């Protein structure tokens, strides 16, 4: 599975936007970009995914660079409940189904 | 629509006992995955099952661990002769396996071996 690189930690203030970056320079054409998050003492939670185009859902937006070597997860208005570890994961279409979690980015949201 | 259910939520076993962890996938999901999170470590894939079949067990320890997903009933992760190093949070996820591969996780079972 292709690897991703994320900052270890980021900090934000409540009600401000948050941009969480992810580098995946060895991404292949059939790799989907997935984001999950894990709140303290809970199971991981699916956030969003995309292939080439930017994506929006009720939780977040995903901005994918034109060359697909990087992406950014955007939380439009951070809340205290968004404090979690965010994981950027590549999944190869038709490949292994397993999620390979790295260390992720620990997001702290200040009130 | 109930999410992924896992039970028990907390399990305490003495060294040498067996641990059985259960996972009921979301309604309509026939793909189940088990992950383990050791204390202060990241999540690691263990096994991927479809109904009555093991598809990928590349993350399962070779000894003492087994998993099944029968035609009827929940998926079971079984750990025989538990050791202290098995103490961890075990998460189950399920997927509908359409185009998008989204996995939905349960709350986990926290196993403590004394």
Would you mind describing this structure in some detail?
The complex is a heterodimer of chains A (111) and B (114). In chain A, 35% of the residues are buried. With 111 residues, chain A is mostly beta strands. Chain A has strands at 9-13, 18-23, 31-38, 44-50, 55-56, 61-64, 70-75, 84-92, 105-110. In chain A, strands 1-9-8-3-4 form a five-stranded mixed β-sheet, with no helix packed on it. Chain A has a four-stranded antiparallel β-sheet with strand order 2-7-6-5, with no helix packed on it. With 114 residues, chain B is mainly beta. Helices cover 0% and strands 49% of the residues of chain B. Chain B is built from no helices and eleven strands. The model of chain B has no long low-confidence stretch (mean pLDDT 93). Chains A and B meet through strand 3 and strand 4 of A and strand 4, strand 5, strand 9 and strand 10 of B.
Task: Provide a brief overview of the structure.
By secondary structure, chain A is mainly β. Chain A is built from no helices and 9 strands.
Key attributes of the depicted protein:
heterodimer, A: 111 residues, mainly beta, 5-stranded mixed beta sheet, 48% strand, globular, B: 114 residues, 7-stranded mixed beta sheet, 4-stranded antiparallel beta sheet, 0% helix, 49% strand
């Amino acid at each position: 599975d292709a690897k991703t690189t994320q900052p270890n930690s980021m900090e934000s203030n409540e009600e401000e936007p948050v941009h969480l970056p992810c580098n995946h320079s060895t991404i292949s054409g059939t790799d989907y970009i997935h984001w999950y998050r894990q709140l303290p003492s809970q199971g991981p939670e699916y956030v969003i995914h995309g292939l080439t185009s930017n994506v929006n859902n009720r939780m977040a937006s995903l901005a994918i660079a034109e060359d697909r070597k990087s992406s950014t997860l955007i939380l439009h208005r951070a809340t205290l409940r968004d404090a979690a570890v965010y994981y950027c994961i590549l999944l190869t279409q038709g490949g292994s189904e397993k999620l390979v979690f790295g260390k992720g980015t620990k997001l702290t949201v200040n009130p | 629509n109930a999410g992924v259910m896992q039970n028990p939520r907390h399990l305490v076993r003495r060294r040498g006992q067996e641990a059985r962890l259960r996972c009921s996938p979301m309604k309509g999901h026939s793909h189940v995955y088990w992950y383990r999170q050791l204390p202060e470590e990241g999540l690691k894939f263990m096994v991927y099952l479809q109904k009555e079949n093991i598809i990928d067990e590349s993350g399962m320890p070779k000894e003492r661990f087994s998993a099944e997903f029968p035609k009827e009933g929940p998926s079971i992760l079984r750990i025989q002769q538990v050791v202290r190093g098995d103490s961890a949070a075990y998460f189950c996820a399920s997927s509908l396996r359409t185009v998008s591969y989204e996995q939905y996780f349960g709350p986990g079972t926290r196993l403590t071996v004394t």
